[in-house]
Amino acid sequence: MAEFKIRTYNNIAIAGLERFPRDRYEVASEIQHPDAIILRSHNLHDEPLPETVKAIGRAGAGVNNIPVAECSRRGIVVFNTPGANANAVKELVIAAMLLAARNICQGWDYVRHLEGDDHQIHKQVEAGKKRFAGFELAGKMLGVVGLGAIGVRVANKALALGMNVSGYDPYVTVERAWQLSSSVIQASSLDELLGICDFVTLHMPLTDQTRGCIDQGRLASMKDGAVLLNFSRGGLVDEAAVLAALDAGKLHAYVTDFPTNALKRHPKAICLPHLGASTREAEENCAVMVADQLRDFLENGNIRHSVNFPEAVMTRAPGTTRLSIPHANVPAMVSQISACLGEKGINIVELLNKSRGEIAYTLIDAEGEVGEDVVDAIRTIDGVLAARRIP
Ligand SMILES: NC(=O)C1=CN([C@@H]2O[C@H](COP(=O)(O)OP(=O)(O)OC[C@H]3O[C@@H](n4cnc5c(N)ncnc54)[C@H](O)[C@@H]3O)[C@@H](O)[C@H]2O)C=CC1
Ligand SMILES: O=C(O)CCC(=O)C(=O)O
């Protein structure tokens, strides 16, 4: 019988699934009691998470489809793959700016509906093309909201196309700030950015804080004829307000990866079927990265790139049994856990304790064998969310 069971949702690239050796892992979409789940955009909010789940790996960036708060309460570690699909999204955003600026979709549609022989088509092309005249990217101001893995890449590439770029991100990391070109102008607020940009592209996560942040008032503050690009999540914008802005000519175009019935019919909305990360390269990058992270967690208890737990990586000490213990970040947890081992005369060889907000995580390499009775005792400590023995 396999040591670990992985339940998959969505189309996970084979290169990632192959990272799980089949002598130790069972990997399938029908598994009822999985140790871990791998998914892309499947919505986990609407279904109960089996008791056996210890980790969830999002092959991608956004985790709004995962009940992260519930996972934290249950000691389930949620992983994502920062940056693994960022280049794919960046390339599509650049394409999207061109689609909008040059009215490519409308022009393409016009040509597809032309009738007559080639001579007549040629005449109609030359007569009709003025309806699709557009404008160039060079010299225009692009506003990038969210300077993470995708936003930084979009900002830098837009500069290379001759655009001016303004960026806004109240939580930008030092790593991303280093990657961002010094030519990007820092906006001190979203409102400041919106008022000066010809194109605005959204690259922040969908959270309670960001939901609906592009609303009627903010759209009104944008430049007339601006282009809004949303390859992040549909919920970031107030859709009715966007439709009204398109109707009023306030927005030249809305380009989005998140269609709805109203948007897909609108002549100024360009809707794509959530294609941002759908490249062979991005799908493989994400699947391989998330598979490696899940394996290291299941086999060693190590945590890399979690969205709800701290980074925790410890080399395994020889001749020991590893204990993986997610718990609340409150005083005296480590002393209570080590007392459970001490009572059985078990020596601790290595110990790592890391915290992140209200959550903490302890990894212990204990000398020799550790019985399940010790793990059971640890589980009963108030504040311990889960405990696992890894031989
Ligand atoms: N269309 C698609 O297929 C894809 C969509 N996405 C979406 O794009 C989002 C961003 O992806 P990444 O750049 O990889 O994530 P990331 O985590 O590297 O970057 C997100 C950035 O947004 C910033 N941020 C958070 N709250 C903000 C706020 N209120 N205002 C401005 N900035 C804020 C963060 O500080 C961070 O720098 C994801 O959360 C996901 O929703 C990601 C990949 C593919
Ligand atoms: O897996 C996908 O195609 C969606 C990617 C995405 O939206 C994300 O990574 O946040």
TrEMBL record:
One of its GO terms (molecular function) is phosphoglycerate dehydrogenase activity. PROSITE patterns: ACT, D_2_HYDROXYACID_DH_1, D_2_HYDROXYACID_DH_3. Keywords: NAD, Oxidoreductase. Signal peptide: none annotated. It catalyses: (R)-2-hydroxyglutarate + NAD(+) = 2-oxoglutarate + NADH + H(+); (2R)-3-phosphoglycerate + NAD(+) = 3-phosphooxypyruvate + NADH + H(+). Pfam families: 2-Hacid_dh, 2-Hacid_dh_C. SUPFAM superfamilies: ACT-like, Formate/glycerate dehydrogenase catalytic domain-like, NAD(P)-binding Rossmann-fold domains. Belongs to the D-isomer specific 2-hydroxyacid dehydrogenase family. Catalyzes the reversible oxidation of 3-phospho-D-glycerate to 3-phosphonooxypyruvate, the first step of the phosphorylated L-serine biosynthesis pathway. Also catalyzes the reversible oxidation of 2-hydroxyglutarate to 2-oxoglutarate. This is D-3-phosphoglycerate dehydrogenase. It comes from Methylomarinovum caldicuralii.
